[in-house]
Amino acid sequence: LLLYLPRFLFEKYFVHGLLALTCDHVINVRVPLAVLLSGFHDFRNNNSNTNNTNNSSSDLNGANADASTGINTAAEVDSSSQLPLQPDPWEWLLSRPDICTCVDRLSQDDQDVFIHMQRLQALPVFAHVA
After folding, report:
1. 10, 72, 73, 63: which is closest to 36 by C-alpha?
2. pLDDT tens across 36-71, in order?
3. 83-115 residues labelled b (16+ CB within 10 A) or e (exposed)
4. Percent of the chain with pLDDT over 90
5. What DSSP character marks residue 25?
6. What does residue 65 show for φ and ψ, rounded to 5 degrees?
7. How many whole angstroms separate alpha carbon 106 and alpha carbon 24?
8. Cβ count within 10 A of residue 74
9. Does the global pTM surpass 0.85?
10. CA 114 to CA 81: how far, in whole Å?
11. What φ, ψ does residue 64 adopt, rounded to 5°?
12. What torsion, rounded to 10 degrees, do the Cα atoms 76, 88, 86, 41 define?
């Protein structure tokens, strides 16, 4: 859903649920949340396979993002088809303070959750996740 819904819909209907599920007592609820939050890695690998010259989506500070929407405004084009690549939705999601709190909580969780959260260490914002 993070890839296909507009940001405002995801924030309106799903972010509250992510925040609530972070504290759920059942680990099988927290594992998919950790997979979602660490899914940027697979998304970026898939996009880098089609366009190895674009590194702008790795900037979580939003250097190329529109201030009002958070959407990456850099010209991202798949060189094989000349179609625009999808903007990286994890840029705005992982830069939200409430989601950063979720990441901190989940990084202290059981091994089943933590194994996914370790992927976030690659981002400067979450270098402390260990």
Report:
1. 10
2. 888 876 666 666 655 544 444 444 444 444 444 444
3. eebebbbbbbbbbeeebeebbeebbebeeebee
4. 30
5. S
6. -100, 145
7. 11
8. 15
9. no
10. 38
11. -110, 15
12. 100
